[in-house]
Structure formats: C-alpha cells, structure tokens
C-alpha cells in the first residue's frame, strides 16, 4: 500500500506542477518578478511538482496509510444501510459542489477558479456524507411511510427480536430465562452496550469492575447457548450520546422489543410507544401467590422498621412482615397472612403469628 500511496503523491505532484507552478510563474511575472523561462515549460514544471511531492511522500506516507486503514476498519464495521445512505448523501454533496465550481470557473480568477473549488468539493462532500449517514433513520421512515401510504393500512407487525440493555446483561437472570426456552426470536446486543460493559469492567472501583466483568461473562454464556441466537449489532447512533436513547432508536428501526430491568428506561419506552419487557415484572409475576387468611411457615431473621415488627423472607425473596415478631427473631413459626402489598420494588406480605 505504501508504494501505491507514493505513486499517488507523485501523480498529484505532476498535475500540480503542470497547472499550478506555471500559473504561479505567470502570476509572479505579471508582478514584475524575473522568472527563468525554463520554469514556464510545462514538462519541467510538472517534473518539479512531481519531485516536490515525492519528497513529501517520504514523510507523509505512513500517516496516510494509517488513515486509510482507520477509514477502512470503520467502513467495514458499518452496516450496509448506513454506507448506502452516506454514499447517497456524498453524491448529492459532490453534485452541489460541482455546480458551484462551474459558476466559479467563469470568473477566470486563479484563486476562485482553481483553488476554491477544491475546498468546496471537500466541504460539500463531507456535509453530504454526514447528513446522509446521520439522518438515515429519518430517510428510512420517510420511504417506509410513502410506501405505506400507497398500500392499505395494516397493523404494525413486531418482530420477535429482543434488544438487551446493559442492566439486564449485568443482572444475569436473562441467561437463566434463555436456558428454559421461554425466549423467542433473536437477542440483539448493540456494540455500544458492549462498549459500556467494557468501560464498567475497566473501572477503578472494585464493585463496578466486578459488575462489568459479570456482564461480559453473561454475554459469553448467552452466545454459547444453542437454544437462542445472539446477534451483535455494529451500528451506532452518533448523533445521540445516551445509551438508553440509542436502544430506543434501535428498537424503532428494528421493530424490536427492549429488554431491561431499568425502571427509568422502562418508563421512557412506554412514553415513546416502544415495546419493553422488564425482567423485574417477570420475576414478580412468577412469585408465590398468597391471599389473606392463608397460613405459612416462616423464620424471622431481623427486626422490622416499625415497633415490635419482625422480618422474614420466602424462598423467592418476598419480604414477610410479621406483627409482634421482634421477640421471635431466629425462630421458625406458623403465621397467618393479613394483607398483601404490591410495590414497584416487589410484593410485600404482612402476617401475624397464629
């Protein structure tokens, strides 16, 4: 690749020498500067330009090669749709730049007709690609909406794809649920979620580091599970900084379902009309059902917040508040359920000793 880059530098130098140096010599001559006649010969000027750019290539080739490889890696990781809309925007930007350049060439002023068009082409090419790439989701929605307007209205069909957020991977229960076969469709793990897991795993805080590493272990466990398909989504939404909003946008693009145990993300999904599955809701729904008057046996393990209360727990983690249980700590006894309270944190049972 280095040889190709150096040849490219030489060719650019030949062209610049053929046009640029001669124009520069003519400009200097008009200003009264004594210019040797041999510098105005096209072939000599072209060779001088080629020699100058060859010398420059000795210092700049490595930098250019690194830049090319960096761009290549980024493009390979982008989804085909992102590249397509970016390329369309690039073509439109270059077309606008061409029209502007044509109007500038009419001026016959060297700076406006030769130099400015180069910067205009680079500027509008960049803006075209950036707009096409960053607005790809809006373009997709526009085309889909136009297509739907031509066809009779049909109910929106949701895919079975489940988009996992960082919290539900670190939580780990999703791996256990996947083993049972209750989850249908593909589990999609965005690259920006994996990046967040890696950031947490590299934290200087021991607790955060352990949580991040646990999340990466859970992800590997999901990939090794033959019952489900795990897809790594390499795309990103660079115009959005927050991971939660990126997940919602991805769910809108994929027509998928967000899986989380984050209360705030759950509420934002509901506001945006994006389907969401909350692992905590699932855990609460499969807990043991009890009704007032039912008897059970519990072990009081600690004091409650209120006076004379004791606290016990069922096998599924449900808290049982025992009235008058403060004096019964460390004792196993039968109790009668008096009431059940459902909160956002889970189910709480109130009971009294028999």
Topology of helices and strands:
Layout: H1 2-30, H2 42-77, H3 80-105, H4 110-134, H5 136-150, E1 162-164, H6 166-171, H7 173-180, E2 186-190, H8 191-201, H9 206-224, E3 229-233, H10 243-254, E4 257-260, H11 263-271, E5 276-278, H12 279-285, E6 295-299, E7 302-303, E8 310-313, E9 319-322, E10 332-343, E11 346-353
Parallel strand pairs: 1-2, 1-4, 2-3, 4-5, 9-11
Antiparallel strand pairs: 6-10, 7-8, 8-9, 10-11
What does this structure look like?
The chain is of the alpha/beta class and 354 residues long. It folds into four domains: 77 residues, no CATH class; 77 residues, no CATH class; 123 residues, 3-Layer(aba) Sandwich (Rossmann fold), CATH 3.40.50; 67 residues, Nucleic acid-binding proteins (OB fold (Dihydrolipoamide Acetyltransferase, E2P)), CATH 2.40.50. Helix content is 57%, strand content 16%. The strands form two sheets. A six-stranded mixed beta sheet has the order 6-10-11-9-8-7. A five-stranded parallel beta sheet has the order 3-2-1-4-5. A hairpin with a 6-residue loop joins strand 7 and strand 8. The longest helix has 36 residues.
CATH architecture of the largest domain: 3-Layer(aba) Sandwich
Helix content: 55-70%
The assigned structural class equals: alpha/beta
Low-confidence stretches: none
The major sheet is characterized as: 6 strands, mixed
Total E-strand runs: 11
Strand order, largest beta sheet = 6-10-11-9-8-7
CATH fold-level name of the largest domain: Rossmann fold
The value of Rg in angstroms is 33 Å
The helix/strand series, from N terminus to C terminus, equals HHHHHEHHEHHEHEHEHEEEEEE
